[in-house]
Write a structure and sequence with these properties.
globular, mainly alpha
């Protein structure tokens, strides 16, 4: 990878962090954890309708077909592979949060599953009682004290916030593997992650369908559930029990 390309990627990362700091740190604290800060609701609802149409026409049929055709064991192996390729990013974010234990866990999981689990196709680390540890740059920003920012719904990716959206962008650059793996191998993780998302959409089809297509206001329902779940994950105040009907991380619908 050329020096120019590395510098360009670093510049994008810095711009992303700067934009988040500008829009999220001014958020009134009173809006968290129970309140909803949605100043772009009209625009968000238009994006939500686009996402619903995309889900109905493409994502849901593909997900149901994917889960129906493939045996559960193969689906699990693909999801394990995608998760394992993301472990180095988890390690980096854990270090940025000052979480040495989390960094150690994710490092051990990556090495164990890569070597003994055939590049992560099998979750051998869990068999050895090494727990799963997950984090992202959105959580890193939370640890650093950056506010949640406005709620947004992203095309394809679904519910998010200003802070989480910046985290998604920055996480494109936090995985050390992306700097050492050349094409086309560097896209294997992206393809596996997409397949894993289809798997989760297929397995939770009934629950997601009830929210998207049976709710009186699917936008408000999805927004509430996603915000409650995300805040619970971050430990951002008392939000009760975890609600995770999507089981899609922040990957949307």
């Amino acid at each position: 990878m050329s020096l120019y390309y590395r510098v360009r990627r670093a510049s994008v990362l810095l711009l992303a962090v700067g934009s988040l700091a500008a829009c999220a740190t001014t958020e009134p604290r009173s809006l968290q954890p129970e309140g909803i800060n949605d100043p772009y609701e009209a625009q968000n609802r238009r994006v939500h309708e686009f996402n619903r149409g995309l889900d109905r026409a493409i994502v849901r049929p593909a997900a149901v077909g994917y889960s129906t055709v493939l045996p559960d064991e193969i689906e699990d192996s693909i999801s394990n592979f995608a998760r394992n390729l993301g472990e180095p990013s988890v390690t980096v974010n854990s270090l940025l949060q000052g979480d040495l234990r989390g960094a150690g866990i994710s490092s051990v999981r990556f090495v164990t599953n890569s070597v003994l689990g055939i590049f992560g196709l099998f979750d051998v680390a869990s068999d050895f009682d090494v727990p799963r540890h997950d984090t992202d740059f959105g959580e890193t920003l939370f640890v650093w004290g950056v506010g949640e920012g406005a709620y947004v719904e992203l095309p394809v990716l679904g519910p998010s916030t200003a802070r989480r959206t910046t985290g998604i962008v920055v996480d494109l650059f936090t995985n050390p593997l992306s700097y050492f793996v050349d094409s086309p191998e560097q896209y294997y993780g992206t393809l596996a992650a997409a397949a894993s998302g289809l798997s989760r959409r297929g397995r939770f089809s009934d629950t997601v369908d009830s929210i998207l297509y049976e709710s009186a206001d699917s936008y408000a329902q999805a927004r509430l559930i996603w915000l409650q779940n995300r805040r619970f994950e971050l430990g951002d105040g008392g939000t009760g029990s975890e609600i995770d009907p999507f089981a899609l991380d922040t990957e949307g619908f």
